[in-house]
Amino acid sequence: xxxxxxxxxxxxxxxxxxxxxxxxxxxxxxxxxxxxxxxxxxxxxxxxxxxxxxxxxxxxxxxxxxxxxxxxxxxxxxxxxxxxxxxxxxxxxxxxxxxxxxxxxxxxxxxxxxxxxxxxxxxxxxxxxxxxxxxxxxxxxxxxxxxxxxxxxxxxxxxxxxxxxxxxxxxxxxxxxxxxxxxxxxxxxxxxxxxxxxxxxxxxxxxxxxxxxxxxxxxxxxxxxxxxxxxxxxxxxxxxxxxxxxxxxxxxxxxxxxxxxxxxxxxxxxxxxxxxxxxxxxxxxxxxxxxxxxxxxxxxxxxxxxxxxxxxxxxxxxxxxxxxxxxxxxxxxxxxxxxxxxxxxxxxxxxxxxxxxxxxxxxxxxxxxxxxxxxxxxxxxxxxxxxxxxxxxxxxxxxxxxxxxxxxxxxxxxxxxxxxxxxxxxxxxxxxxxxxxxxxxxxxxxxxxxxxxxxxxxxxxxxxxxxxxxxxxxxxxxxxxxxxxxxxxxxxxxxxxxxxxxxxxxxxxxxxxxxxxxxxxxxxxxxxxxx
Amino acid sequence: xxxxxxxxxxxxxxxxxxxxxxxxxxxxxxxxxxxxxxxxxxxxxxxxxxxxxxxxxxxxxxxxxxxxxxxxxxxxxxxxxxxxxxxxxxxxxxxxxxxxxxxxxxxxxxxxxxxxxxxxxxxxxxxxxxxxxxxxxxxxxxxxxxxxxxxxxxxxxxxxxxxxxxxxxxxxxxxxxxxxxxxxxxxxxxxxxxxxxxxxxxxxxxxxxxxxxxxxxxxxxxxxxxxxxxxxxxxxxxxxxxxxxxxxxxxxxxxxxxxxxxxxxxxxxxxxxxxxxxxxxxxxxxxxxxxxxxxxxxxxxxxxxxxxxxxxxxxxxxxxxxxxxxxxxxxxxxxxxxxxxxxxxxxxxxxxxxxx
Lengths: 531, 356
Prior knowledge:
heterodimer, A: mainly alpha, MetI-like fold, 22 helices, B: alpha/beta, D-Maltodextrin-Binding Protein, domain 2, 10-stranded mixed sheet, 14 helices, disordered N terminus
């Protein structure tokens, strides 16, 4: 293509807001708090070698395990048609958006002392690994399954007709086509497990620490900003390498694949297909559904008592506001975060639609960065930077949704971008030739195709915001606790009723998340979305 | 509308909305002398009845806005980071284990609160009145009464008891590096056994099977067998002297006796303070708020809201609190200066001894 100055200006205009958002609410605060620490000099990094090594290897093993267990799951969702599929897909995604305090409690109830399963796994690396699989199963199912469901099954069938065994046909035909998606999923899982915090603390006990846990300790407890800054830089370096890898894979993904509508590739299981389905259902049941079920069962230990107690706000209540207010605040913050994330992520995706140059790819990577940076660093960074008008936002009710949106934006981009890229460029050109302004082209061509993706992105952003805990808890808030914060408060006080209410509120959060995810399932995407 | 206009509008609108919100947020804080607001910065565990804040508003015409974030340690550190441009006017929740750090950082402006004269001297740790004591609570080992009755074993009473073979593998405590009760337990052992003997004692504890978990929530809810909510495996846990009160107050059935007891020889006293933040915008209102925190309405409200004891002698506390909270007497303590000088080194030694 020849150079297109108008296009460049358009892209710059579209990117202004996302870049500004990221700059003001992420880069500036994080750089300030890291700079504050490094102002006192760089500490000896050697003392953190053990922590870095543990962080890397547990993330690598967690990623491998997640892939091993979830790839068959991705196949089941991509290729098989069975009753209750939408519901199941929503359920397996719920863990991903649950706060870790809740998941930690559920796992302890399962494999902790006197756990339901009768095996002790807490305070060990296996517990951490299993919980990481629990959290990230959905990442693989959605990222890989999304592409898989659109691969033309006839290619693999043709290979079999030509004499290849099932396994060989899969390895020779399907695996190479899936490789970029598997790579992208693996990178995401690695990113999430590399920055794991609550799970390592609760299930690993104090013997284990990831870089993220150590940053929290150094910042929030010891106020050793020097060490925290050094650790943040270390984490930053690893995450940057990962994102570069991801950008590279992303470019390879744009290679030509023979894609078909998902509906034409699914079929009812036959013969061995039933066995595959059953085996995967067992994995999902044991790994994903049991921990969730434990929470639900515990919430009903007293019949409806815990739920009834949530509705009251008497002296006996630990919450300073009735639970329905916490739910209301969660919904309000979630909606605000969703709007912010949609605007920022949508504009970024629109800018990156055409001609993914090096710059746009770099911005794509930058938008992912908040996923790889410690919530403590961001929260404390907000404090030291957003303190002067016009950006004196430290006690503004907007701060929480802004922090939540940081985490949700990457998912919006990942959902909307592939769909926009799949829009046939000739449609736009035809519209332009017929005299439509760029805005009109976007409205008449892109929007009708992209609105479903935007809806899906909205649902995801909403669910993520509902479950967000890390950044929220480090931001000074007026009397507006979100549901995860309320659960945390309830778990922080002795007494049977408090524990019951914490479980009941967790169940409500699960239902809210599952509900918004299920609503997404109703919105069918034309082409593969990465998330 | 051309594209450029549209893009410009898209870029400007949210920022304008942001600016509007931020001005409305900051306007509530500005106007030092005449403002009818005061902002209380505190940690996540702060609680107060609405009616009490309403009474303050009625009495003074001042509305209190409460900003909470993080645990006690994180909240103090956040306050230190925002020194000079504080998030609010009054900080509540710095305790004696963090006090010296806050004072060294000159976080607070001296103010001798009205009514502070009656507070017993043992709580007044800063003679310059940069902070005012508000409440205290004792961190002690709690025990599962049922377990010890069934085993026909006397529950432990002192730090030395905890290292005895009879109590092998029974104790779960919190990480002193990440948890405030965990640190208090460490300091309690230093106060009772002395600086020099404490490190050896921690090794004995570890050899006797004491288990360390990261936070109170996990220790109490998931590992302690005495909690009515929990199904834990350890009949001894480091918690608070008021935990039995909460067990009774938040029980499903009406209890006449708490299911848990307190080993009164294993306690460390935490005193919580409030102070007027240096650079506060509404410092006059802040002073009134501190006066209020040590006045009867707030002092009476605290016990059942935060499960701590009021510092003002003779405060009327609810019956359930006075009946079920365990009287500890005056436990041995470590001075704030000593804590400041040795904290990091103690935590390091404790971690080496206990977390392996």
